[in-house]
Each structure stands twice: as structure tokens, then as C-alpha cells.
Write a sequence for this structure.
């Protein structure tokens, strides 16, 4: 079986010394030594001012919204993993969906201003598949209307633009270190922020709102990352350069073999951007011999576990369907892309033979059918 994503697991014996250290210290969670080390290492590696680790990306999103005391309505994209909007509902915020740009598949800045109402307090864009949002435009709109910007950067680990981390954009950026992501701690997440005061608030919120041993200043949550997860992150970080390099090779192999295929479109590569090659989405158009869903079934039948990220749109789920902004007429591009998209397998443990098998099946889908 070939999975669409697969966690990179370094040799088990490399993890042994970390476990021995934890057993020796008997410090298993609550801001332990590995937690400290991973925050320092990621701050350095990512080139960001401050980072706070959390137990997963969803708790990081919830906590980011609490950090900035967001209220009312939040403008966001329907073309994402459902946790993006769920985090709004859990904060009793109203998602307002805005259509996406057909090239980047990120929220279309040209459509944001029309969605702003007196209740709007923030924008929650997603760097979908790690493709950077137009942060300059989004920042200008936010400034003009007094809005906060929180990026769901779950796909954007290590992505750089003009030589700098895109995690520096907006007020806060949220990462996921879930097993399926480019950098994983089994489960994990983080919030990137620009100043020490915000980090202090995040660190308090993720620890029940404790300011010190006897003072609780906010209704916080248990969002702490354990020592085991932090230790695994430190080990993972030793292998990240090799993992990213392998991802790049696979991306290039797909592009070379599929770039000219009639009826199939790869996403364009962004100028001045260091990608993390987190996903390989293709769009299946008329002109391809099969429909998207036929190709999906065909590959699945060969044990190639492709995924339709992101179909259905978040706005199609029953929780969101009733919102005025969820109407398909408001989201024509997102609706069309969600019907065309298929993510091909991309992870560092794929062999060239496996990639070539996927390529052959996509290039001549009838051969094996
Ligand atoms: C994975 C993901 C999340 C959620 O992260 P978890 O760590 O799984 O909670 C949120 N947003 C997007 C876009 C994601 O892909």
C-alpha cells in the first residue's frame, strides 16, 4: 500500500537515549527540558521571534484565537481542513467564508473587503499546501479595517519567501505537528508570535491560565506538549533537511512526468519561495480520460491511498451549510477546485519505483483498469 502521507520515523535506537533521559529526570510534561530545547531549536531553525509548543494544531488554533481575544465574525477560507473553522465555532465565533484564488488556492484578497461587517474582528487565512498567502495584501486590508490576522500555517513548516519564514506574517501563525505533516511530533502544534508578551500569554493560556503557582488570570486550557512528543521533535529535526530534500526530488519527478499531461494541472511553483513540498495536488479537468472520482477509485483499487484534499469544502458540512457565506454561488472557485483536486502520495519514505508506479497509473489510467 502506498499512502498519501506517512510519518517519517527515524531508526528506533536513535530515540532510545531521549527516553532514558526522560526516565532518569522523571519530568514527563509541564515545560520540561525537552520542551525547552525544542522551542529553542525551532525558533532558530524556522527563523521566528518566539514559538510556543502545544499538544496539537487544533488546540493551537483555539488558543491563538483566545490570545488575541477575537470576537464576532472571522473571515476565513472554505478550502482547508475542517479544524480551521471548527476552532472558530469552539470560540463561539462566526466563520465568514470567502472564495479562493484559482492559482494559489488560498483566500482571495480581492474578495475579503466585501465580507467585512461591523462584527468582523479577524482574518484566518490558510497557507494551503504550504503555498504562501498574499500576506502583504491581507495585511493592508487588516490594517485598514483594524482586524487581526491569524494564519493557519499547518502546512507551512519551513516555507520561506524572499529568504524569510512566512510564519512571521500576521499577528500569529499556527503550526500542526500531526503525524501526517512535514514535521511531526506524533501529535503536536505550535503558535508563532512576534513578542515576548504574547508568548507569555500563550504559555499561560495553554496551562489553564496560570500566571504563577497561585494566580489564574484567564480561563485557559490544557494545551501542553509532553516531553515524549518534544523529544521526538528534537530527533525529527535532525532528519528534517534530508526529508525536505527527498520531498523535493519526488515533487520534481511528478512535475517532469505529469506537467504536460492533457486535462491534468499541477499547481504552479511560486517565485522567490522555498517550498516544503508538503503535498502534491493535481487538478483533473475535462480533457483527462477519467473524472476525478474515477481516477480516485482507480488508484485506490491499486492500493494507492490518494486523498481528495479538500473535498468536501468546509462550507459543505452540515455545521456550516446554513451560513449565508457558505452558498456555492459565493464560492465558485473553491467549489470547482474541490471537485477537481486529488493529492498524490508525497512523503520522504517513498521510493522512485513507487512514485513511477503512481505516475504510470495517472498517465495511462486505462491500461491497468
Ligand atoms: C492538520 C491541520 C490542522 C489541525 O492540526 P492537528 O494537529 O491535527 O490538530 C489545522 N488546519 C489545517 C489546515 C491542517 O491541515
Amino acid at each position: 500500500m502506498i499512502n498519501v502521507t506517512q510519518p517519517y520515523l527515524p531508526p528506533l535506537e536513535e530515540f532510545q537515549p531521549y527516553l532514558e533521559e526522560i526516565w532518569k529526570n522523571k519530568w514527563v510534561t509541564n515545560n520540561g527540558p525537552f520542551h525547552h530545547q525544542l522551542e529553542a531549536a525551532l525558533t532558530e531553525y524556522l527563523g521566528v521571534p518566539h514559538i510556543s509548543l502545544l499538544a496539537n494544531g487544533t488546540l493551537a488554533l483555539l488558543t491563538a484565537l483566545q490570545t488575541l481575544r477575537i470576537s464576532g465574525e472571522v473571515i476565513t477560507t472554505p478550502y482547508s481542513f475542517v479544524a480551521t473553522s471548527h476552532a472558530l465555532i469552539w470560540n463561539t465565533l462566526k466563520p465568514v467564508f470567502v472564495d479562493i484564488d484559482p492559482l494559489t488556492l488560498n483566500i482571495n484578497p480581492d474578495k475579503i473587503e466585501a465580507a467585512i461587517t461591523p462584527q468582523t474582528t479577524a482574518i484566518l487565512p490558510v497557507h494551503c499546501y504550504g503555498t504562501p498567502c498574499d500576506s502583504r495584501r491581507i495585511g493592508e486590508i487588516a490594517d485598514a479595517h483594524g482586524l487581526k490576522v491569524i494564519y493557519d500555517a499547518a502546512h507551512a513548516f519551513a516555507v520561506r519567501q524572499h529568504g524569510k519564514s512566512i510564519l512571521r506574517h500576521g499577528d500569529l501563525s499556527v503550526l500542526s505537528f500531526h503525524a501526517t505533516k512535514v514535521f511531526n511530533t506524533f501529535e503536536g502544534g505550535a503558535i508563532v508570535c512576534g513578542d515576548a508578551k504574547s508568548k507569555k500569554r500563550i504559555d499561560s493560556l495553554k496551562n489553564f491560565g496560570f500566571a504563577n503557582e497561585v494566580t489564574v488570570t484567564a480561563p485557559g486550557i490544557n494545551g501542553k506538549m509532553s516531553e515524549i512528543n518534544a523529544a521526538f521533535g528534537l530527533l525529527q529535526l535532525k532528519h528534517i533537511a534530508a526529508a525536505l530534500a527527498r520531498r523535493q526530488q519526488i515533487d520534481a519527478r511528478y512535475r517532469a512526468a505529469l506537467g504536460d499531461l492533457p486535462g491534468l494541472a499541477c499547481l504552479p511553483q511560486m517565485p522567490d519561495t522555498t517550498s516544503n513540498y508538503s503535498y502534491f495536488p493535481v487538478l483533473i479537468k475535462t480533457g483527462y480520460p477519467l473524472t476525478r472520482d474515477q481516477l480516485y477509485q482507480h488508484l485506490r483499487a491499486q492500493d494507492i491511498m490518494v486523498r481528495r484534499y479538500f473535498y468536501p469544502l468546509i462550507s459543505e458540512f452540515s455545521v456550516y451549510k446554513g451560513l449565508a457565506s457558505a452558498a456555492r454561488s459565493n464560492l465558485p472557485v473553491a467549489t470547482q477546485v474541490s471537485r477537481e483536486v486529488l493529492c498524490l502520495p508525497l512523503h520522504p519514505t517513498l521510493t522512485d519505483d513507487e512514485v513511477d508506479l503512481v505516475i504510470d497509473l495517472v498517465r495511462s489510467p486505462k491500461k491497468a483498469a
Summary: The two ends are 17 Å apart (CA to CA). The chain has two domains: 2-98+105-235, 241-368.
